[in-house]
Amino acid sequence: AETAEGDIVPGVARPRWQFQLSGLVFSIIRRTPLYGKIKASAFAKMRVSTESTGVDWDAEVAALQDVCVDASLAAVKQEAGESFVTPAYYRRAFHAYDDGNLCWEHACHQPLVSRAVGARNLPGLPAEDGDANFRGAFERELLALLPADAPCRQPGAAIVDLGCGTGISTRRLLDAFPGAASCVGVDLSPHMVAVGRALLDREEGASDPRLKLALGDAARLGDVPDGSVDLVSLCLVLHELPGSATDDILSEAARALKPGGHLAIFEMDPASPGFLRARSNPWVFAALRSTEPYLDDYFWDVAPLLRCRLQERGLEVLGKRLIESNKHQVVVARRV
Fold it and tell me: Which tens digits make up the pLDDT trace of 300-310?
């Protein structure tokens, strides 16, 4: 399918009063029993969508129960060291889970739900291929926007995947850049990292020493030297962050990148046709916000000023493309 190329509009973020009706609806709903019903409904719909891709939900979750033990968490945390601290913004409900990303339930569901996300965003394609097509669109546009001589295309490249979850995006990055010497996924959830490692161990032919998942804070990559990385990726991460955390992570990405290295962002595009329709309906948008605590920050502050944020950190935007979902963008920037 064709993609639409566009630019990130610089300037002042859109005033929140334009969308205050959806904010009012959401603030009212959040204080009523209806909020819990909306979260439960969102989860039920996601499970149905997941199973439509051919997933046996109960069987796949059951197969991971041997990982969901204290010893798995302890091993991941020990590697991170005593200096690792979970940021306060991360200790809250996400995606209809009261414990957010810091629970076994969400970690076991994440690789399953990922398939539903692709199927729901690309409804015209076979559901079972949804995730591959959705994430594949990111990789396709990333490769199209990168220059032919990009350092990450060269043998021996170093790649870092920030906010990797259970490592789906990390594994796919290594497939997209097979000459890389290392591809490291970093996530704040020890549960996600533990499940992701188990899935890697169980995949046939997946024991690649270049691939690693680690517990860590994307805003404080203490063991990554300045100017040592060729490609930093943020795949569906920014909309789950408060604006201040986004700024910290973009600064850290810029620090870690080599001059001439690249930052790749795959994310919602609030200005896209799909999300403009959603934002025009206060009930629909209120439901979307019910499981995304920092969506306001992203839609009204981060996304409209993304180019400015990148430029302030010495990251020159090379281009932006809208994928087939009509709701998601790929942005690539170069470290100057």
Answer: 899 999 999 99
The predicted structure's pLDDT at residue 83: 92
Using one digit for the tens of pLDDT, what is the confidence trace for 218-244?
Answer: 999 989 999 999 999 999 999 999 999
Using CB atoms within 10 A of its CB, is residue 89 exposed (0-12), middle (13-18) or buried (19+)?
Answer: middle
Mean pLDDT on 107-136: 91
Q: Report DSSP letters for 231-251, one per residue.
A: EEEEES-GGGS-HHHHHHHHH
Burial label for 149, CB within 10 Å (0-12, 13-18, 19+), is exposed
Question: Which residue type occupies 223?
Answer: D
Contact criterion met (CB below 8 Å) for 322 and 257: no
**According to DSSP H, which parts of the chain are helical?**
20-29, 33-51, 57-62, 70-80, 104-121, 130-145, 168-176, 190-202, 243-256, 273-280, 282-289, 295-297, 306-312
Tokens of 124: 């015209």
Among the listed residues 326, 325, 308, the one whose alpha carbon sits nearest the alpha carbon of residue 317: 308
Q: How far is CA 65 from CA 61, 152, 203, 224, in A?
A: 7, 37, 17, 33
Q: Which residues lie below 8 Å from residue 286, measured CB to CB, with a gap of 6+? A: 22, 25, 26, 29
- What's the pLDDT at 4? 40
User: Among 258, 261, 237, which residue's Cα sits nearest to residue 249?
Assistant: 237
Distance between CA atoms of residues 183 and 175, nearest Å: 10
Run of H or E including 214? strand 211-215
Which strand (E) or helix (H) includes residue 332?
Answer: strand 328-335
Q: How far apart are CA 225 and CA 233, in angstroms?
A: 17
DSSP letters spanning 16-42: GGGGHHHHHHHHHHTTSHHHHHHHHHH
